[in-house]
Amino acid sequence: MRFPGSTLPCRILQWAEAITLIAGNHASDVLFEALQQHFSEREIVDLEFAIAVINAWNRIAIGFRQPVKKASLLPH
Fold first, then answer.
1. N or C: which end of the chain has fewer CB within 10 A?
2. Is there a domain that residue 76 lies in?
């Protein structure tokens, strides 16, 4: 897990990573239960949809060989 921690932002990133990498593992019940402590069912649906759409955009960009523009990268 690349986002250790129990803060809400970490939990959201952990869930997004689990859903994104679903083919290689599974989205754990522990992560889902952590989301349920902070979000309503509708909010979890919205989060899932956002994760799915962003994953789709990334896959489309990869498929069309669209490089990330340096101007759009955040400074480290």
1. C
2. no
